[in-house]
Specification:
Helices cover 54% and strands 13% of the residues. By secondary structure, the chain is α/β, with parallel strands linked by helices. The protein has one domain (3-140): 5'-nuclease (Rossmann fold, 3-Layer(aba) Sandwich), CATH 3.40.50.1010. A five-stranded parallel beta sheet has the order 3-2-1-4-5. Strand 4, helix 7 (122-128) and strand 5 form a beta-alpha-beta unit.
């Protein structure tokens, strides 16, 4: 079963069906639930998910009660949340790829674990896809064989 690093933008698509590539994110979640893939994320992932859900509630995509339910459901997933790299490493990657320090945490994890990193952040994907072929756009996700 392949390990996939996922960022919070993928998880937010699970609960925002009007977002671009939400169907592909749902396919990925279904593959996880079937046990054909496993998820990894840096330890700050839950906070980023909470921030994304907060934005969805603020936009009116979810009502308050739905936001609380969604947070509970997403954070209850049995996935490995890995320790963060040293700040100097995160800073170095952020400068190298001209991305945020937060984005660099996902890049570092996928690189260390030698696995794909799936993102729903088109700007991040476009910025690094030529240099980092392990970074993948959620819109390109295809169902895993059962």
């Amino acid at each position: 079963m392949p390990d996939l690093v996922i960022d919070a933008s993928v998880a937010v698509k699970w609960v925002s069906p009007d977002e671009v590539a939400a169907d592909r994110a749902a396919w990925m979640l279904a593959d996880y639930q079937r046990g054909t893939v496993s998820f990894l994320a840096p330890s700050l992932w839950g906070y980023e998910v909470a921030s994304g859900v907060n934005k969805a509630v603020a936009r009116g995509d979810l009502v308050e009660a739905e936001g609380r339910e969604v947070i509970e459901a997403i954070l209850s997933l049995d996935m490995s949340q890995e320790p963060l790299p040293p700040p100097k490493r995160a800073y170095t990657l952020a400068r190298k790829y001209r991305r945020s320090v937060y984005d660099s945490l996902y890049l570092d994890l996928a690189e260390r674990r030698r696995c794909e990193f799936w993102t729903g952040d088109r700007k991040l994907y476009n910025a690094v896809k030529m240099q980092l072929p392990f970074v993948r756009w959620i819109g390109d996700y295809d169902k895993q064989p059962a």
